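Ops channel
N.P.: pipeline sanity check, posting one input/output pair.
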């Protein structure tokens, strides 16, 4: 490299300068040189130069380490950060240079100064993460040889350096996912390093034993060496217990016990290195308790008693807190294990609580110091859940662990301690305030989690009234600040249990605490107020089981306090170190988002917020605070300007100067926020817009504005606001052309393609076809060009939504013609492979409605699909519409009235930070259509009336189409001939006959239609499955279908007659009265006289139903809900044990890029299919823990198979579970495939965000009295995959059925086409599952007799009997 060491040294010296100008220039020079060959080697040589100043060497070492991270394996580094595919990767370090670095790194690390050595050790770990051991086989032998040489020379500086490097090298075994490759690496490391490690460890132990009374200077490096050995011990034992360590466990445990139990001189004890070693030993003990409990149990008693004694011994070293935490963690693990009896005696429990738990819960001087000096860290530990490694928190965790087995004893001890603490406080509140603080902390820390059945330690309301309220009502907000903070924390934690009236009484007092001089206290007060705004009550909707989560405190509750709250909150921002306090700003945001502010308060608030914004623009440093600041502005605009348009000029006057300053001064962190605020103001304003807005519109359309990727979502949001507010402006000065070009520039990138569609959707929604029509050719060209290279689900779904919007706005003809204008017949080429399959995958209430309505109009109005040649596509589209509409509604049973918790952002990044309060309100483009399901039925009925017979013929063709998923019959060689004969038969029917058939579609839809269910899906499925196609006796066929529909749809037995009032359903039939009479006659001849109404009502619970094979045998109520509506687990004790099995499946759509990576095993996280298989098996075994009301089932067999499908670039997952027991294992099978699918997603997500898990379903459930099948067209048993031989089928049925009746004979007639013939097994299941073996009704036999006759007629028509 042509850069001299002197130049490099000068750059690093300047990079340390406090002056920003030379510092930035030096950083730029280093960045420019980073991509040149030889740069890494030059850095390493500078680090090794002893004549260079240590500060420069340290800076160079840090830069060298970071340079290796980005340039050693650039593609891996980019993938690890999940950067967009468009981000350029830095050039890799050349191979010869890499080899030189690896040859020098270990020796230079050993010779480096103490401050530099750790950096080079981390650099070695960076290189080894990529190259070790395969591409760096010499590393481990070099480390071992150097370690033995250093140990022999008693050079513990070198020993510790080498052990530190080894610890970094082996750390991956702690954090990496277990797989075969990792285990091979572990075996290599164990074979080479386990024995030398033990040698050094034992030699150092002997050295320490000989110098127990030695000075700290002598023992410090020895203890540090042992600590590093313990770190390596932990890494090498993290996956499983290696054979070497099991064989030498006594040597290790003997020395571990000695370090925990030996007392050293006070100087050594207080120095800190010894306690750090003991903490590492405790970590290893906990590891062995968790993973190797059986092998470790012989040592457990000695270690538990030694750790007890150690914790009861006072210590004051800097590492004492770390030791205390790790030691208590170990005891906590023991307390939750099978060895919890160590804590069973009352004396032990008393000693643990009095000597370990309660002393560690009390505040210490260090806590008070942190409270005063570093309030941010104090809050982070205390209320943000990051205090797991603090004495207070871990002591409470130990109590919880012991309470799992000794709950009553622990509760009694803690309750007595709380009472004692409060008594001590009452005796002298001024001196003993820490006792009350500890009592409050115990109650808060040991409170049960939400949803837990555990009871509280105290009566919350009583404790709140007697202990907390006096602190909150004290007039001096600055007295005993730590106690006040504890009281406020209690209020926050138990906010759900505090009655509303009590909260409203205390709200003015909370506002007073905003003026406390303590940063912690006014932060806790703000946090408490903000969390109160989020409290929701569960309210059951009258007349249903639906539950809504309704805010407890609304605008009417908050409004009287808003002026005081806002005044005090803005005053709190003026306290020292709270100028950018995120808790205060979040509280401001929440108050403005919930309450209603009058014009005067709104004007004051916007001026203060604008001032705060102008100040932080000078040096943006707190992204969390800044996000809440912009959310506050957005909330104020949304709540105030919407109610009072006169406030808009006031807001513009306050905000425009600072927003313009953000753009002019290039405060890039705030650009996305500024554009969202501008979008809000545009939406609030009435046209015509002022010149300021139109100037911004001009800037918005400039290509330069769109070059920063992080701004694009906000710019799209602003552009949408302009398009909706002033669409006519697009006709001027070529603006529409600029908008179209912007959208087309967004489509080619996967990260912005969805935004491109947002722009196009807005254009289509707001402009007439006359204006936008000329641009369609360019739009389609750009979209379909992109579609050729990217067929990801997200992109195709966006395309379907876009095409749907065009259709509903401008009609099917315009959509079809505009696409075909690009290439003749192109629309149909897009329809089949993209629109139809992806229609089922649309999500979102508005999107689903739009897509289903558009597709319905397409099949009912478009001449292209109504053409007879398109019947198959018509049926496929109908199938997709039904599948889409049959999905669960957006309503999930618990609805939230939105006031969401807005989580803090973690920092500025390229990711877009959306403002919740500034979000665009989603508008329904089809407000006139109430229900898309009803729209489908109505549209099909109109089509039937307009063209009698067309709907039914299309359904029949769909039924017999081999390529359609709903097809159920495989007619082998005679398929084509039979289909032609069926179609010709229908063509010979008269209009009245076809109209009656179509009337059943109207009958099912009109009489049984309920918008909240999927009856239309069941109805059409029953047509495909049950209707005897081509039956010569229409009455028999019709009556059978009606009977089936009655039992499929009816929630309870209904009167079987077809009433005269339903005659209107039989479209275009002039003789419907006669048809109805014939149908009633046929029903009575089959089922007997219908029961009376009284009999129906009295015997409703006893009447069994014939069910469709696509549905479960459903009881009249939910099995997992008791009589009062509460959840319960089903009691299966009365069931008989039987062999039960289930098969489930799902697909993971990867896309071509990820599919190729998985197929070639190039995913960075490892072997995807193997890991997913293991995860699926583990998931099946954990089903009872994951799904609350599932029984714990002892599985006898679990199988998970993953297969790559190149046709659609997917992973097909099939899972099977089996048991012998009283309940089925379908949930275990479905959990297995779901967990396996999630694992595939997790391992591949860095390569793509478009992966989709779909088609999770149950394929087979066996072992119940009635075999039910979710998807009978799938292979149902391993032994019956594909076609089933007749003899095998006959034997299987006779073996498993006690029914030898006419039904079974007729089933054999159907399948016994030839003695050696074959039939699709799914067809048998469909016929068989209609028959309910427990039905005792007198019409059962006649029904079966009729079914047999129907089967015979099918055989006659198809002419396929032998």
């Amino acid at each position: 490299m042509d850069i001299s060491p002197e130049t490099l040294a000068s750059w690093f010296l300047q990079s340390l300068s406090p002056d920003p100008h030379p510092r930035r220039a030096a950083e730029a020079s280093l960045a420019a040189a980073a991509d040149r060959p030889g740069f890494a080697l030059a850095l390493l040589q500078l680090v090794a130069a002893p004549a260079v100043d240590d500060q420069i060497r340290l800076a160079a070492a840090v830069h060298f380490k970071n340079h290796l991270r980005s340039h050693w394996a650039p593609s891996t580094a980019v993938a690890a950060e999940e950067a967009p595919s468009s981000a350029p990767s830095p050039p890799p370090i050349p191979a010869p240079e890499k080899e030189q670095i690896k040859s020098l790194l270990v020796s230079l690390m050993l010779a480096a100064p103490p401050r530099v050595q750790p950096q080079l050790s981390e650099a070695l770990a960076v290189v080894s993460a990529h190259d070790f051991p395969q591409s760096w086989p010499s590393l481990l032998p070099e480390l071992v040889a150097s370690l033995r040489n250093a140990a022999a020379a008693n050079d513990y500086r070198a020993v510790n350096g080498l052990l530190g490097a080894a610890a970094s090298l082996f750390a991956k075994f702690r954090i990496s996912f277990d797989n075969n490759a990792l285990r091979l690496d572990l075996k290599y490391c164990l074979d080479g390093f386990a024995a030398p490690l033990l040698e050094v460890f034992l030699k150092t132990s002997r050295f320490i034993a000989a110098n127990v009374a030695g000075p700290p200077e002598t023992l410090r490096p020895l203890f540090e060496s042992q600590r590093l050995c313990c770190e390596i011990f932990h890494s090498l034992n993290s996956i499983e217990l290696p054979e070497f360590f099991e064989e030498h466990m006594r040597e290790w445990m003997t020395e571990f016990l000695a370090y925990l139990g030996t007392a050293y001189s006070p100087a050594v004890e207080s120095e800190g290195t010894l306690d750090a070693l003991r903490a590492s030993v405790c970590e290893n003990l906990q590891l062995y308790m968790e993973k190797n409990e059986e092998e470790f149990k012989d040592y457990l008693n000695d270690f538990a008693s030694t750790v007890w004694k150690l914790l009861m011994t006072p210590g004051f070293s800097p590492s004492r807190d770390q030791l205390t935490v790790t030691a208590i963690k170990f005891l906590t693990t023991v307390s939750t294990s099978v060895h919890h009896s160590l804590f069973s005696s009352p004396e032990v429990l008393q000693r643990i609580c009095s000597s370990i738990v309660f002393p560690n819960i009390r505040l210490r001087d260090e806590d008070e110091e942190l409270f005063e000096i570093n309030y941010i860290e104090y809050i982070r530990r205390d209320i943000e859940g990051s205090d797991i490694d603090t004495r207070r928190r871990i002591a409470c965790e130990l109590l919880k662990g012991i309470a799992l087995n000794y709950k009553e004893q622990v509760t009694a001890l803690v309750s007595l301690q709380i009472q004692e603490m409060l008594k001590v406080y009452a005796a002298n509140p001024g001196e003993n305030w820490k006792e009350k603080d500890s009592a409050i902390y115990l109650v808060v820390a040991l409170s049960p989690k939400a949803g837990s059945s555990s009871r509280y330690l105290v009566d919350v309301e009583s404790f709140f009234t007697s202990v907390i309220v006096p602190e909150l009502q004290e007039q001096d907000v600055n007295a005993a600040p730590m106690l006040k903070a504890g009281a406020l924390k209690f209020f926050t934690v138990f906010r759900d249990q505090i009655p509303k009236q009590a909260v409203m009484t205390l709200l003015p007092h909370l506002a007073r605490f905003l003026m406390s001089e303590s940063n912690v206290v006014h932060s806790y007060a703000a946090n408490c107020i903000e969390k109160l705004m989020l409290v929701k009550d569960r309210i059951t909707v009258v007349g249903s089981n639906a539950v809504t989560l309704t805010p407890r405190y609304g605008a009417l509750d908050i409004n009287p306090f808003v002026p005081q709250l806002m005044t005090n909150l803005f005053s709190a921002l003026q306290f020292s170190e709270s100028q950018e306090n995120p808790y205060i700003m979040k509280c401001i945001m929440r108050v403005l988002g919930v309450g209603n502010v009058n014009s005067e308060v709104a004007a004051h608030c916007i001026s203060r917020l604008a001032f705060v914004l102008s100040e932080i623009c000078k040096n943006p440093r707190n992204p969390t605070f800044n996000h809440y600041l912009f959310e506050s502005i957005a909330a104020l605009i949304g709540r105030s300007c919407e109610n009072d348009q006169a406030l808009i000029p006031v807001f513009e006057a306050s905000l425009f100067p600072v927003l313009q300053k953000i753009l002019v001064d290039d405060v890039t962190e705030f650009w996305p926020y500024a554009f969202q605020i501008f979008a809000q103001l545009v939406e609030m304003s009435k046209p015509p817009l002022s010149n300021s807005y139109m100037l911004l519109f001009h800037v918005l359309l400039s290509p330069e504005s769109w070059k920063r990727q992080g701004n694009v979502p906000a710019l799209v949001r602003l552009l949408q606001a302009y398009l909706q507010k002033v669409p006519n402006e697009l006709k001027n000065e070529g603006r529409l052309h600029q908008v179209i070009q912007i959208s087309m520039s967004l489509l080619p990138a996967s990260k912005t393609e969805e935004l491109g569609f947002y722009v196009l959707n807005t254009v289509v929604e707001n402009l007439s076809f006359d204006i936008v029509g000329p641009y369609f050719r360019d739009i389609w060209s750009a979209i379909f060009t992109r579609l050729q290279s990217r067929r990801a689900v997200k992109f195709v779904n966006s395309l379907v939504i876009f095409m749907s919007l065009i259709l509903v706005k401008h009609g099917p003809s315009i959509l079809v013609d505009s696409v075909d204008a690009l290439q003749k017949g192109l629309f149909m080429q897009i329809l089949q492979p993209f629109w139809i399959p992806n229609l089922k995958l649309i999500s979102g209430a508005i999107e689903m409605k739009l897509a289903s309505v558009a597709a319905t109009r397409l099949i009912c109005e478009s001449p292209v699909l109504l053409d007879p040649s398109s019947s198959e596509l018509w049926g496929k589209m109908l199938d997709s519409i039904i599948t889409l509409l049959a999905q669960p509604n957006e309503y999930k049973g618990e609805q939230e009235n939105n006031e969401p918790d807005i989580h803090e952002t973690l920092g500025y990044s390229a990711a877009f930070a959306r403002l919740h309060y500034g979000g665009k309100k989603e508008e329904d483009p089809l407000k006139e259509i109430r229900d898309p399901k009803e729209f489908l039925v109505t549209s099909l009925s109109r089509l039937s009336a307009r063209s009698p017979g067309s709907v039914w013929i299309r359904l029949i063709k769909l039924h017999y189409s081999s390529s359609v998923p709903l097809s159920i019959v495989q007619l082998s060689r005679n398929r084509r001939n039979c289909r032609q004969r069926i179609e010709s038969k229908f063509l010979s029917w008269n209009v009245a006959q076809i109209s009656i058939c179509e009337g059943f579609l109207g009958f099912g839809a009109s009489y049984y239609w309920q918008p909240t269910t999927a009856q239309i899906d069941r109805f059409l499925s029953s047509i495909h499955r049950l209707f005897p196609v081509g039956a010569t006796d229409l009455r028999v066929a019709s009556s059978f279908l009606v009977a089936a529909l009655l039992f499929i749809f009816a929630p309870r037995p209904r009167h079987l007659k077809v009433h005269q009032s339903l005659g209107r359903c039989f479209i275009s039939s002039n003789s419907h009265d006669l048809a109805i009479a014939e149908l009633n006659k046929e029903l009575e001849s089959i089922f007997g006289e219908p029961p009376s109404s009284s009999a129906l009502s009295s015997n409703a619970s006893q009447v069994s139903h014939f069910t469709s094979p696509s549905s479960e045998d459903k009881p009249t109520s939910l099995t997992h809900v008791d009589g009062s509506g509460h959840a319960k687990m089903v009691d299966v004790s009365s069931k008989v044990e039987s062999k039960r099995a289930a098969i489930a499946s799902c697909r993971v759509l990867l896309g071509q890029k990820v599919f190729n990576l998985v197929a070639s095993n190039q995913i960075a996280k490892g072997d995807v299919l193997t890991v997913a298989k293991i995860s699926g098996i583990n998931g099946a075994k954990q089903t009872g823990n994951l799904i609350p009301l599932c029984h714990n089932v002892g599985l006898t067999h679990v199988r998970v198979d993953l297969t790559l499908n190149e046709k659609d670039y997917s992973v097909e997952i099939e899972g099977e579970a089996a048991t012998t027991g009283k309940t089925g294992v379908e949930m275990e099978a479905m959990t297995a495939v779901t967990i396996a699918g999630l694992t595939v997603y997790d391992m591949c997500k860095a390569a793509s965000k478009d992966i989709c898990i779909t088609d999770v379903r149950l394929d087979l459930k066996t072992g119940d009295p009635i075999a039910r099948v979710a998807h009978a067209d799938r292979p149902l048993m391993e032994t019956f995959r594909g076609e089933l031989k007749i003899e095998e089928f006959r034997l299987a049925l006779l073996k498993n059925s006690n029914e030898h009746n006419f039904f079974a004979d007729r089933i054999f007639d159907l399948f016994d086409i030839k003695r050696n013939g074959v039939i699709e097994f799914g067809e048998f299941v469909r016929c068989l599952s209609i028959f309910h073996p427990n039905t005792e009704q007198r019409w059962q036999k006649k029904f079966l007799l009729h079914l047999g006759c129907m089967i015979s007629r099918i055989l006659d028509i198809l002419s396929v009997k032998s």
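N.P.: looks fine end to end. The radius of gyration is 37 Å.
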